[in-house]
Known about the structure:
With 222 residues, the protein is an alpha+beta fold. The protein is 40% helix and 18% strand.
Amino acid sequence: MELLPISKAEAARYMGVKGEPDSAVSELLDRAEKQVREVLRPKYVYIETDISITDEGVLLGAMIEPLTGDDIRRHLKGCDKAVLLAATLSQEADKLIRQAAVTNMAYSLALDCICSAAIEQVCERAEEEIFSKLSAPYRTWRFSPGYGDLPLTLQRGFLLALNAQRRIGLTVTDSSLLIPSKSVTAVIGISDVQVTKGSRGCAVCTMKDSCAYRLSGNICKK
Length: 222
């Protein structure tokens, strides 16, 4: 997948910029956006799986361990299938950010924030492509491990179900952090009937009370 123009306004918000960025920040973001689009080739993988909701949690046919927590149960209520998705900007994204940090921390930050905006673009486009092929009259938002009370430790199960290490080079640390870092896993519920789309963004984020980005007046997802 080749990246389309990346939202520099979104990247600026990730940097904590309020309002329009000044000329210095704009120049950094322009340079970072150009380099990221030239160098990175994102990848994604997905599978469709059955769902059943039990006392143990939400059971996916593709996974051994259940998805636990009240938030994911509410999120997938009424769904009988789901899509598991994993997307990554690749190791090159982490490499760009690290290399820039050696000589120019401001530019490294711009790259980091552009990459954050880029992986969101990749997920949105992946979702569009996936559901142009699948029969899915209604679907939920993407919901990722670590949102609400869905344990971050489920990352490993997501990657195993997707065979993501072999297919797109995506792995997970012992502390359940994805490597490469500019990567996302998510589950999207599918239903034949209208489903109530639950809360997203700050409403289900476990960091909402301590997030410096939110306290500055910004949000990372609407």
